[in-house]
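Review this:
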Amino acid sequence: MKRPMALVGFATLLALLAALFFGERTSLFLSAVSLVFFTCSLLCKTIRKGKAIPIAFLAIALSTGLFAAESERISCVNDLHGMTATVSGVVDDLPYNENGNYCCLIKVETIEGYSFPENGRVLVYASEPIVNGPGDRVEGEMRFLLPNAQNGFGTRASLAADHIYLYAFPVDEGAITRPGTVRSLWTTLLHWKLSLYDAVDSLYSPSDASMVKGLLFGDKHTVPDDIQDAYRAAGVSHILAVSGFHLVIVTQMLTVLLQAFRVPRRLRPFLSALCILLFMALAGFSASVLRSGIMCLVLLLGDCFSRKTDALNSLGFAVWILCLNNPFAAADAGLLLSVAATAGLILTSGRIQRVMDDHTPQKGVWSLVLRPIKSVLATSISGTLFTLPILILLFGTISPFSLLANLLMVYASSLMLQSAAISLIIGILIPPFAALPVLCTSWLNGYLTFCAKQLSSMPLAVFYFTGRAAYLWVGCCFALLGLAVLLGNGKPRLRTAGILCAILFLTSLFAEQLSLRNVTTLSVLSCGDGIATVVTRNGHAAIIGCSGYSRSEVVNCLGAEHTNSLDLIALAGETFEEGSNAGAILSEQPCGTLLCRRESLANGMLLGNAENAGEILQYNSGYSVSLWDGAVTVEREGAFLRVLCGTESILYWPEGAEAENLPESWDDCTILFLEELPDSLDGLQPDFGIFCMDEDSVSRVWSVECPFLPVTTADGTVEIRIQTDGTTQLRREP
């Protein structure tokens, strides 16, 4: 077998993706079935001789077994959901600000009265700084919440890839104590990183400094949200993510420096490896950084022993090592995109460039001009082809201008990275000589920001392709490509399969757009313990309730549902949490009308961003608002809220609402949303009851005799589509 580690690595990754998708309960079953097939393959002489199939089944069995074991190991965190306990731990990373909250990662040592996974971490949200910096020992009483989980690919799994298992909120921030500090190699590196941050701040303006930190250290928390959104919409968000692209540049710079200082050839790989490890540490050892770093180290190891390394084998080895260390690494979006893009570069980039070479001049001035353009295009096309399925499944977005954006920005970002690194080194050693590279970096940052904003603001800059149509297309692509491989004859069949995949994609995208015309969609979001609903129709949107852990699910849904106008935000429960989420949403997207009580405006986050609402309607007892030519009507009486759409009457039952206060005419609802389980549901006969609450409360639902079909958002977002002919579809959104 030519590439055994490539087979092991990719088989492991695909098996873990299946385990994540189907859930931890099926992982042991997958492991057992794979072991059976492995044994059968060993007994078959023809299959055993090829080695590929037995090795693949063994890799699948091992990876799914490890996933089951890891899931069992961390299952103890479920007992902490909604609980309050005293935690003791050490700050394990640089604190940062997010949506007005002070955030820090704490490596847990003990949680009083509860067990916690070894080396596990919690993400702490506070309103003000509670620590001085990394290495601080922290003690205090905190309330814990589980991150959201949906089909294995929710926030919970992606955070588990970084050994983060819970959100934590201090009960009394003033009571949080710092009994001491812990010094280790890791905390020393973090403090050194802080010193580098200070050096960057002293050299650059705030806007330039944030981009330099993001580019050099992969710290996206310093980059403004509007800049990140522009890069994402332009299809070049990989520039801000430290990955193989950055390590290649770092390695090239190291090679030039070591050659310039005439370092002995045998010593160069060791020095390069040391510098790469240091860069990986400064970038936070993220999954994508580890992937590219391991590949670079394998390459250097081969150079030490004068052995030629295989790129695809190195990629498979890196994936296998990462997944072996933590099976939840397969849920990390950065790793998946990095692996897919790298595989695309290895397998197709050279071929695409050769095709372009065949149709362009090979001599003269034009050859010199076109050479870098062809290189960027080949890299961008190959990376886009291989990452497209992942981008669609994880984010539901496509950037048609990504090729143009890469052509305009990739080389500039490479130059900016090099000039930023040079300016930082010179700024530390001989500050007066840093002016020129600082000026160069600042100019390049301005150019990159201009390109990203211009491309992202163009019409049709982003296409949305989500839901079952996306899953169906990805499934068809894998089936067609697998069939092409099995049938043989190499390139012609693969080329035909690729063309069919493109035709299916365009057909599915067009069909989805047509199917959503004049259809009202209610997306009941999986936000943990609160009602959050996004109502959309023909590109217009309304938010009714925005409780839950954060506003990110609501914002993502607005994009996924093809919305271009937010017309209404109506608070449902009027809690402080809901007001904060509404304020955070307004900070990112203007709204036509904000419906809330006067008391809700006491929330600083909501009040500070209320100017982004075209109209603020304050009410005491109730209101009635009509949207989109009467297609949707939102009404409120007391604590209860109702949405009328076609033949459907949707009743919202927020936390704290009492049955005796329900208006008599409202008990004929066809769909019921509940934020908590009432003592009695007498008089209500809906077709469906959707429970928007945490998993502990949901467990009580099944012990109550419900006069309707109960559905819970704990298992993922619920989507209700009301057609123009009056029919209603209720489904679980993948």
